[in-house]
Design brief:
This protein has 215 residues and is mostly helical. It is built from six helices and no strands. It has one domain: Alpha-lytic protease prodomain-like. The protein is 82% helix and 0% strand.
Length: 215
């Protein structure tokens, strides 16, 4: 084979190298924002910030799994995507339970902290989304990572809306309601990832059938 014409494996290695650089950046951005949001969410008594901090932690884990899956075969990358879908669903349900608890034990959140941290998180996740958009159609592993980043941008906008609602109403209810919607949106996205991963893995799990020539 002409060395000037890369094989499929060589082509994939080049793509994987670009994926790796992108995933390391978004991994550290999400991990850093998780620490910031979990501390500030506690200081502000904001359920929306806590929800977003857990989402950031989940995404950091998801990006870490994406990094581990990069040099694996397609089946392993699809299995990683499937696990990420289940992880997203689990996080969404856990945050939803926390939201229900807060409905019965409401606390007035700090609007200033919510707004400042919400803007910082939004900027960080817009950077992640821009970086991942270039690779969203490369494979399911990267597409699931892009979906996480897209969700994060929408979640951050929701946190800012919640902060505005709290400021206007002088009530914790906008924070709690937005938090519940965040959970439902993340859960819906996780179901899409699970379905896609299962569809791609299905041909690999079907038994090999031998055809017998009747003649």
């Amino acid at each position: 084979m002409d060395p000037c014409c890369p094989t499929d494996q060589e082509t994939w290695q080049k793509i994987a190298s670009k994926h790796k650089n992108t995933l390391w950046v978004v991994f550290f951005l999400n991990l850093g924002m998780f620490v910031v949001e979990v501390v500030c969410g506690w200081m502000a008594n904001s359920n929306a910030l806590w929800s977003d901090s857990l989402d950031m932690l989940g995404d950091a884990i998801i990006y870490g799994l994406s990094l581990l899956a990069l040099n694996q075969e397609t089946a392993w990358r699809n299995r990683a995507a499937l696990f990420k879908g289940y992880l997203m669903a689990g996080l969404a349900l856990s945050i939803l339970l926390l939201s229900f608890y807060r409905f019965y034990h409401p606390v007035m959140p700090g609007v200033e902290i919510m707004s400042i941290i919400g803007i910082c998180a939004l900027i960080a996740n817009i950077i992640c989304l821009i970086l991942l958009t270039r690779h969203k159609n490369d494979d399911l592993n990267m597409r699931s990572s892009w979906i996480c980043a897209r969700n994060d941008v929408l979640v951050n906008l929701s946190v800012l809306i919640a902060a505005g609602g709290v400021a206007l109403t002088a009530s914790p209810w906008p924070d709690l309601i937005i938090s519940a919607f965040i959970c439902l949106y993340i859960f819906k996205s996780s179901l899409w990832i699970i379905k896609e991963a299962q569809e791609k893995l299905k041909p690999l799990t079907l038994p090999i059938r031998q055809t017998i020539d009747p003649h």
